[in-house]
Predict the 3D structure of the following.
Amino acid sequence: MPKVTADSTTITLPDGQIELSWAAVTHRGRRRDVNQDAVLAQFPLFVVADGMGGHVGGEIASTSTVARMRELAESGSITAKALEKSLARAVKDIASHPDATDEATGTTVTGVFLDTSRGEPHWVTLNIGDSRVYLVRDGMIAQLTTDHSVVQELVAAGRLSPEEAENHPYGNVITRAVGPSESVTPDYVRVEIAPGDRFVICSDGLTKELTDYGIRHFLDENPDPADAVRAMLDAALENGGRDNISIIVLNVGGAPVIEDDADDEDESDTAEWETVDDADDETDAAADEPAQESAAADDGVDSSDTPVDEQAGNEGDESSPESR
């Protein structure tokens, strides 16, 4: 089994200090020859990248992107504008390997960072592709990111049910990726800092094998992030491990108190809620700027103060689909 990395830190907020603890793992899975995923769990930035485009190309795309994200994390302060500049550099890095990459090469990049640049500190999720960020708050789980995929567009248009989407033949086709020939801008969602929150950042290798309820179940059973990561990885492998699997679990504050519900499988355990309104001006302004001058105007970011349930209905990016 791969090594699970774990760490923690304490941050100072206007109303006191709060401890963050996290753990991360990435695994080849049971059916893939190589692992094209890459993971970064380094405060204040936590991301996964799921590469595509051949054995070598996909790995180049994901590792190049995570390397640029690591540089950004080491700077200590992250904004949307700085993140998009790092993604633009990653695009150039990927394109610098013409013998191993082509138009089908790319990577997802999805995660969460702590924004302390102005005003009250808050979390910001970022997403390009179909990796995901989940948030568990008050015993309920919500997917904060919206997949950039053909299947999600069909679901949003009402042409496909969520149940039909699970085994759709276009399930691996995404509509937005960090690639060698184009730059794209992430979607952002701003989230207030709340003690007891737990984030899960994962590639689709996990969500192919575990439902949202399954993810919440293993979080409930394992308050420690490292234990939760191991449990979810073991379950995903047991369920088939059809793809590379990458997981980050981030705890905000102390270990959550899990209450016994009369019916653990009640549908109310899976819910969505609105994110905090009035995202800071710098994040909004940066979201309107392309990562490179050549970026198309329709690569703009959804408003970071859009409720999660409204984001699911947004139209997908019009760039050429990428298949993994």
